[in-house]
Amino acid sequence: MSIINSMNLHIEAKSQNESFARSVVASFFVQLNPTLEQIEDLKTAVSEAVTNCIVHAYDKAQQGEIVIACNLSEKEIEVKITDYGKGISNIEKAMQPFYTTGEEGERSGMGFTVMQAFCDDVSVVSENGSTTVTLVKKV
Predict the structure, then answer these.
(1) pTM of the prediction?
(2) Residues designated as active site
(3) N or C: which end of the chain has fewer CB within 10 A?
């Protein structure tokens, strides 16, 4: 991937920052002239990833940092969303549909499934309490 532009965004893990994060990423993505559907898909995936950071990584404490790094190439955007919370002990299990660490009935456990449905590639790395979700959306 030959990067033509990049940006980094640092936000607090507060629920009111979720819509801001998805809007910033979508605005950056517009440089590739995506369709409205592609923009909405990416916004949905970013929302899910940021919400996971707030709810799971920091246990809804509304404190902690989320770093969003975006790289544009000629045909795709790569979005890395990193938290420094408690990490994910079993990524494979966490990515299963309906799996959640939240209280029963409170969360659907579909966050990663939604991200996978709306992006061309989703990967997760969690080590030393830090978790990075990488989303790739092609145009």
Answers:
(1) 0.90
(2) 48, 52, 107
(3) N
